Amino acid sequence: MQLNTLPAHVRPREKLLHSGPEALTDAELLAIFLRTGTRGMNAIELAQSLLTQNHTLDNLFNASLSEFSALKGLGTAKYVQLQAVLELSKRYLKERCHRETLFDSPQAVSDYLTIQLRGLSHEVFMALYVDNQNRLIKDEILFTGTINAASVYPREVVKAALKHNAAALIFAHNHPSGVAEPSQADKLITKKLQNALALVDINVLDHLIVAGNQCISFAHRGLI
Question: Where does the sequence pass through the membrane (predicted)?
Fold first, then answer.
């Protein structure tokens, strides 16, 4: 069935305009992005088929160009559009982190870090440098690879924090395994960094672990 033959109130665009984007399903939102279907499938049916094939939006959004283009109804043009949308989302969330007081807006931090770190196939350790009003000065990936107590160097973190004149830091790293629970090594690293930064009067506000769409906060868990 073509979308234009459906009642207006169930067409994705009209439904979004009437009820807002949060009222739409994943398939309906994806259908708006796709705009058109393929032979035998309208845009909503194509969107649902893509979600079924990929299991999650995360898998679809993190597909390589070759993987994306192999899916029926998609190609290079749609891949470029999607990557542009994802990058705009990252930049929008980063703007929010610069503008808002991070310690008072933990959801903004969580949203930003989740979209930055989810889907990566390797571990990265990231620092968010914060001013004395808890606003973001800069974010930076400090270390890449398997994160353990030996691979994160407190001296380098302290040097970077002083370079950016940070009053406090928020740390984050990802777990490609999909398990967000902090390991004993994660706890040890956090304590080492807290102790090192305390010597130069720089606070550690939080350490977040991103695994898929999950984001675990050390501060929320009482570990900081």
Answer: none
